Amino acid sequence: MSKTKKHTPALGSDYSAKMKSRYAEKVKTSSKIYTKADRRDNRIVENMTVEPEQEATEKTLIKGGCLCGAVRFKTNGTLRPVINCHCGQCLHTHGHYAAYTSVDKKNFQLVNDTGLKWFRSSNEARRGFCQECGASIFFERLGGSNISIAAGMLDPSKGLKTAEHIFVADKPDYYEIEDDLPKHPQYYK
Length: 189
Prior knowledge:
The chain contains three helices and twelve strands; from the N terminus they run H-E-E-H-E-E-E-H-E-E-E-E-E-E-E. It has helices at residues 12-23, 36-42, 88-94; strands at residues 27-29, 32-34, 60-65, 72-77, 82-85, 98-104, 108-112, 116-119, 125-130, 136-141, 146-150, 162-166.
């Protein structure tokens, strides 16, 4: 019987090189084939300097987007304070509770939507995410006048504060809410 080489998993730089070459191939999304270079070109690199602190209640231009830049937006209106949602859908969408602000749709504009994909998560709402990097970005009630934006997607979020928690009755046991903000068992508006 001939000896065969035992299978040993590639570790370290060998493994990284194999994975890089595997995922450097063309990835098919939607109807267009995107390469790694295409995704790199999708990124919008802007001035990353620290901007002066701004109040969330001011009408001010705020930009934001996903990790890879395939979804970019800007708002020119008053942002609602952040509401932390602990519902089951947000837990499954974000992997943890969701922190959303909101703005009137007339004060919202998509700058780059090449990666934007919408998922109808219920009969009342849909969720927008980037199909390139997987970022969960938007929550929108169907027929509503506002669009909710995941607060972490905003470039400058200084001055934006969390105001309350909703769906705390659905909160899992692995974390505690230890602040003094209002806590609502369900959605209350």
